[in-house]
Amino acid sequence: MSKASGILRPKAVRGANSAAILQLLRQYGSMSRADVARQSGLSEGSVSRITSELIRREIVCEDGAENSTGGRPGRRLRLAERHLGLGIEIRRGEVRVASATLTGKILESLTIAAPASPDELLKATGSVVRSFREKYRKNYIEGLGVSVRGIVNSRTGIVEFGNLPAWVGVPVREQLQASLNMPVHVDNNVRLAAIAEYNYGNLLEVRNSQCLLFAMVDDGIGIGIVLDGKLYYGPRDAAGEFGQMVIADSDDAEQLDRAGCLEKLASSTALCEHYSALTRTRSLPGASDSRGRVRRICQLALGGDEAALGALVKTCRYLGIGLANVIWGLNADAVVLDAPINEAWSIVAPLIRNQFPKGEDIITFRNIVLRPSSLGGEATIIGAATLPFQRLFTSGEVRRSNDNEVRGQIA
Q1: Is there a single domain that holds both residue 184 and residue 38?
Q2: Which of 30, 48, 81, 303 has its CA 20 to 30 A from that of 127?
């Protein structure tokens, strides 16, 4: 007779309860044992036993006395900072390496130039990771998380199609795991930013959302989809590639990067092109890249510059139409925008909202949340550096020692 599915053994139950408590501490920061019991639904006795074990394992620590109405005051609990994750964010032209705590706090980061070859890039990055491991050798390093742009198979750790020609079929996890001999996890940059916003951001309405859209708008456009606190990947790990969504018909014969797709009309590159068309100029003082040019355009718009305002109006109109289409399809209740145009949020937000249907009878857009990212451009690196904690927050398990040996199959 086969095992009945869905039945948890006692060890798995304890792990699930530990994970539930850890998730609460991640969300609220500091809690009393009584508060943990109320929020989790566990008995105070169970909470006491579980938290004692978590304290022994240096995952949780006590943090000051709580207010007491009589008797001996209790101690509040919080996530300890002994367990660390390391993260790599591979960007255009550079790589960032960082260390982070269980609370998503970045302790330190270092940026290096990115070699063009994937092999050379991973080799150079591995050297930086080794220096981080040496510096934090007294901590429990749970593993390494890697953020890469493009289509990433998070199960195999292979970059199927990156944003550069050389990044096709690159076995990132295999190469780094072999050279570093530590657990390595790999995922797409937008997905990692989305789950970091959900888990570590300070927007309560976002954390309470059932369907969160995290829109990253830069030279390209991607949307991370978080459903009931979990990332949605799609059957081919390509969910969220809405930059290719066609929102304006054209005679373009291309089927990829068509002239009327969202990316061509609402990305940072598109905004710069809209501004150039209005001013008949290709340069902006003090701005050497598209991100810098966008920020300069935002500053000009905030100062009342008509061309900058016109460029933002056009860009945000297309962006709002694109986001509205996604909201219609997924019935999302929250949208977070991570983009250089956030610098002019007071202008940008109303322009985007103008494309959302209005009226109490339109249920899909009723009370829709639209917010800028609360992580200040750090969402991706936080997502990468906290990726090694995924097992801890889902099953209550951590690595069994502080050495760098890969123990078993890394999921």
Answers
A1: no
A2: 81
pTM of the complete model = 0.91
CATH number at residue 69: 1.10.10.10
Same domain for 236 and 351?
Answer: yes
Q: State the residue range of the domain holding 316.
A: 202-374
The contacts of residue 85 (CB under 8 Å, 6+ apart) are: 99, 100, 141, 142, 143, 144, 145, 385, 386, 387, 388, 389
Measure the CA–CA gap between 392 and 379, rounded to whole angstroms. Answer: 20
Pair 70, 87 in one domain = no
Same domain for 171 and 242, yes or no, is no
- 380 SS3 class: helix
Per-residue pLDDT of the chain (411 residues; tens, 9 = 90+): 444 455 556 667 888 999 999 999 999 999 999 999 999 999 999 999 999 999 999 999 998 765 555 555 568 999 999 999 999 999 988 999 999 999 999 999 999 999 999 999 999 999 999 999 999 999 999 999 999 999 999 999 999 999 888 999 999 999 999 999 999 999 999 999 999 999 999 988 898 999 999 999 999 999 999 999 999 999 999 999 999 999 988 777 777 888 899 999 999 999 999 999 999 876 676 566 888 999 999 999 999 999 999 999 999 999 999 999 999 999 999 999 999 999 999 999 999 999 999 988 899 999 999 999 999 899 999 999 999 999 999 988 876 544 444 433 333
**Residue 75 placed within a domain:** yes
